Structures are given as structure tokens and as C-alpha cells.
Amino acid sequence: MTSPQPEPTLTFTPKRVAQLAFVLIGCQLVIRAWVAASNYFYWDDLILMGRGGRFPLFSSELLLYDHDGHFMPAAFFFTGLITRIAPYNWALSATLLVIGQAAASLALLRTLRLVLGWRPALLIPLILYLFVPLTLPSFSWWAAALNALPLQIALAWACGDAIKLYRTGHVRYVFSGTAVFVVSLLFFEKAVLVPFVALAFLVLYLRTQGEGTPIRSAVTKCRRLWTACAAVLAIWIPVYLTTVESPITGNGRSMSTELLHHGTSLGMLPTLLGGPWRWERWIPSPAWADPPTVLVAAAWVALLTTVVMTVRARRGAAWIWVAAALYFLASVVAMTATRSDADTTYELAQTLRYFTDSATVFALAAALILAAPRVVRPGYPSQSPPACRRSSWSVHSSRPSRSSTSGARTRLATTSPTREYRCHRIRMLHCSSNPSRSKCSFPSPFRTIWQAMFSRHCLIAPNSLPALRFCAPSTTADGLSMPK
What we know:
Number of strands: 4
Helix content: 55-70%
Number of helices: 17
Shape: globular
Largest sheet: 2 strands, antiparallel
Strand content: under 5%
Low-confidence stretches: 382-450, 452-484
Distance between the termini: 33 Å
């Protein structure tokens, strides 16, 4: 008598998660190529190309030009080079925009993998970054993209290098992180925030890993990276102050409240739900978001619900939310201080380009929340067996023979001693035997993502083998009740 064959199921192996991640990036690039193909040079693009064609590439007139309060020598040099190769050729510029977007997406994927591994949960922050419309306005404008894309690359890459340097201590990550910081700083002065974001990211990551003194550990173990970045800033700040006239207008205080409202409720938040759905424009100004009221209300409800649920479900999530909010507020403050005057309209904040880089920070914050240990609530066991205590699991299993009628049990082996999960004991069984005892099915992608975000139980084990299916028996062989 032969045992019943298990039904084919969908498995989230590390290889499949990686494939899905690259497919998603490919889809994003197709969309971005379509968007770029429908645009052309606009406003500041003509200034950059005009100066790039007029002055020598290495002249101070080109590299040290104060462009409306921006210090961006690399942007002028790059545009001047493009002008000499193919002047006013949008096809070449659009191709370079897509390549830059690919670099930003891959840099983020690298850091997400370092935090979450090749787990289904990695797809959540990746999808957030790839398809949120928050990054579209700056991408489709050549001059704005020269600021935004290098900054997004640097934010993601520097955070990844900070983790790699902490783990390995290899000096190459000092050189890599510093080089990316320098390049981004030459494209956009806002890149001064990159090392501070990387430090905060590493501290919050170490908190999720159960490090007792995360600030001290992050500062001491990566001090060579922070020292190198400080040396770069010590050189760059005097050059900036002597080259660029102060862009601070002094009119931002009276407009700050309304600009914050327009930038948050009518700008950033609706994009997190795929908005703004509608765009308006006053010729010749750039387009600005005009979301319907129902979308604004839905965005606030979704945000507050997500904050409450993650803070209740994930330890340390509140600090991560605070850090992400502070970065966005810093972007709004910078916009208010440098772009507000008597002729400024509040719709300026709805153009979205002043906080495009927040999309990268939000994705990194989402990854940290997913990596944080789950909170134990009253009514659940406070102690967990050794198999459920550690942060990173690898699943070991032997395939049962065809004649076997009692499926082999899976054992969970811990591989990281850095933090504890306090969770229920998990049994994962092969579903080829005794179907009446256990209710076995592999969760759908939506259910997997939902559990990864909000579940307080250890229902998802990373690095599972292809042959395994998740089983949630109501009662296991030893009588232990399992949460459903």
C-alpha cells in the first residue's frame, strides 16, 4: 500500500524570493522606461546643458556654479559630458535615468537582504520602494534626478556597508561607504545626511538583534567609516559655504504649518496607497499632486493602523517609526527654509521632489520593523523552547521514504546568538502522513506577508527547504496546542 502523494504547493525558497525580487525590479524599470520615454528636457535641464556646453568640463565656472542654492559639481560635469557626446539627445538621457534607477533599486535590495535574508518578508519593503509614486516626479525630470538618484543610492549603500563593516570589520567597506558618500555629496548637498542615516540605521538594526549597547557598538566597531565621513564633511562644508550663497529665505516660519500639511497629507501620504490619482499643473510650473479627499483620509487611516499594529507586534518599532518620521520632517524643514518666499504657493510641497529620498528611508525602516522580534503579550508563554529563541533559523530536514507512514519531523537549528524570540514552540511536519492529525497547507503570498508584518507567533521560518510545507496542526503529537 503506497502512501498518498502530497499535493503540489508553492514554496518560498531563498532562490525563489531572489528571483521574485529581480522580477519586481525588472517590472519597475519597464515602467520607468515608459515614463522617461514620454518626457523631455525641462527648465533647469536647459540651464545645466547650456552651461555644460559653454564652459570647459573642469572649469570653476562650471563645477563651482551656485545653481539656485545648490552645490552640485558632479551634476554639471556629468551633464556637460553628455552635452558633448549627444547634445539635447533625450534618448541617451532617458537611458541613463533608467540605469540610475536600476542602481538605486539594486543598492536597496542589497541592504534588505543583509537585514532580512532571502525571506518572503523582504518583498514588502522592496515593493514599497519600487512602485510607490513618491519617486516618480524627480525621476522624470533630468535635473531633479541628478540630485535624487545618487542620494537614494548612497542612502541604501551606506546602510548596507555599515552592517557589513560591523559584521566583518573589513576595511573595504570603509572605502566603499566613503566613496559612495563623496560621489553623492558632489551631486546633491542633502547627501550630508547619509552618514547620520547610516549610523541611525545601524543602531536600530542592532536593537532588533538584541544588542545591549547598540549606540556604543555601532560607533566603536564602525568608527573608521564615521571618521572618514567626518573628514569628508570637514573639507566639503567650507567649500560649500564659500561657494554658495545662503539659500535660507527667512520666510519659512510663517508658512511652515501649511507646507507641512500640503507635503504630508496632500503629498507624501497618498503616494503610499498608489496615489495621488490626480495631477494638476500651472504652466510653466511642474505638476503637483491633487489627491481626492477620500484618498487622503484612507492614507491617514492606513498609516495610523499600521503604526499601532506594528508597535504592538514588534519590539522597538516605535523608535523606527520616530526615526523615519524625523527624516521626512527634516526634508520638509529644508524645503520650507530654502524655498519659501512671498511668491511661494503651498502646492510647492505637493510636487513631491523635495522628499523623494524618503521612499528609500521608509523601505529601510520597514525592513527594520520586519526584522524586530515579536512582542509577547499577557496570556502567552513567557518562555520558549531553545528552538525558537534565536533570530535566524535554518531548517534541517530529511526527506521521508515513500514507504514511510509517519512523516519525519523537522528540527529548527539556531544560527545567530544575537537576540531572542519569545514565541510558541513550532512543529513543522511533512504532510504525507496522517492528514487527520494536522491541517497542512502552505500559506498564500498575501497571508505570508501579513504574518510577517503583524503575527506575534513564529509561523514563518526563513531559509526553508523546497521540500517543506508549513503545517499548522491544531494539536501536535505531544499535545501542544498551536495558534492558528
